[in-house]
TrEMBL record:
Organism: Ambispora leptoticha
Similarity section: Belongs to the CENP-H/MCM16 family.
Name assigned to this protein: 3635_t:CDS:1
Domain Centromere protein H C-terminal positions: 36-241
BP terms from Gene Ontology: chromosome segregation; kinetochore assembly; mitotic spindle organization
GO MF annotations, alphabetized: kinetochore binding
UniProt-listed InterPro entries: CENP-H (IPR040034), CENP-H_C (IPR008426)
Higher taxonomy: Eukaryota, Fungi, Fungi incertae sedis, Mucoromycota, Glomeromycotina
Polar residues composition-biased segments: 1-15
Region of interest: Disordered: 1-21
Main localization category: nucleus
A GO CC term attached to the entry: nucleus
Domain of life of the native organism: Eukaryota
Length: 246
């Protein structure tokens, strides 16, 4: 479901606002009243957008939990990009409506004097909206960078797990062969086996040390980002898998 379909579906569910008798307000007052009614409509529309986006995000997270790690990372990035696009579209449409409201077709000096306080309030709301949008875009950009770094570290941890399994398999194989050789007799071949075992054990210790560093960095990155990882299935899976031994 794309953003256009979401907007159309949400617009179709909204009921028209009751009209206010024109005799009770001046034209400018009526325009201000229409603006605030439209602002309430925008707030209701935004809440429905957030509900739809939350539902889509939950569906994508459910699919990601059932997919391999590489697909899960890709789905998380696509979900973040879709959320960014939806918020940008919502902000752009709200800006267009506000600009149209602030451009009346008929003006008069007396009405302009009466409308000046309302215009000041609207300008303050616009400035506040722009500030919040800027802050949101900045936080979203930082989140994308953190997700990119998290994906890289995740791949390193997976690669380190695979390497550790290979080393353990090699140690087991050589240990079994060495035991058989020792039972059959002693000689230069036994010394060679023992040297190989010591070398592999040293490599394994170095690998485990590097793995521990990567694991600490990955945990620190998630914790210092102040992301509620306990409420995110993908991040919770990562944090739990970090502590697993190979």
């Amino acid at each position: 479901m794309d953003s256009t379909t979401i907007i159309e579906e949400t617009s179709n569910t909204l009921e028209p606002q009751p009209e206010t008798p024109a005799s009770l307000f001046t034209s400018k007052e009526q325009e201000v009243l229409d603006y605030f009614e439209h602002l309430s409509w925008l707030i209701q529309q935004r809440r429905e957008y957030e509900h739809i986006i939350e539902r889509q995000t939950q569906q994508e997270q459910q699919k990601a939990a059932e997919s391999p790690p590489a697909n899960a990372i890709k789905l998380a990035q696509v979900s973040s990009a879709n959320l960014f696009k939806d918020k940008a579209i919502e902000s752009a449409k709200a800006g267009i409506v506000i600009l149209e409201t602030l451009s009346p077709q008929r003006t008069s000096s007396s009405n302009n004097d009466n409308l000046q306080p309302s215009n000041n309030t609207l300008n303050e709301l616009i400035l506040e909206r722009d500030r919040l949008v800027t802050e949101f875009l900045k936080m979203h950009h930082e989140l994308l960078e953190a997700q990119s770094e998290l994906s890289k570290l995740e791949k390193k941890v997976i690669a380190r797990h695979i390497e550790n399994r290979k080393l353990m398999s090699e140690i087991t194989r050589i240990t079994e062969a060495s035991s058989i050789s020792i039972e059959n007799g002693s000689g230069p071949e036994n010394s060679e086996f023992l040297g190989t075992i010591q070398r592999i054990r040293k490599d394994l210790e170095n690998t485990l040390a590097k793995r521990e560093i990567v694991r600490n960095v990955l945990q620190g990155l998630i914790l210092e980002s102040h992301v509620e990882w306990t409420e995110d299935d993908h991040l919770m899976t990562i944090m739990l898998s970090i502590g697993e031994e190979f």
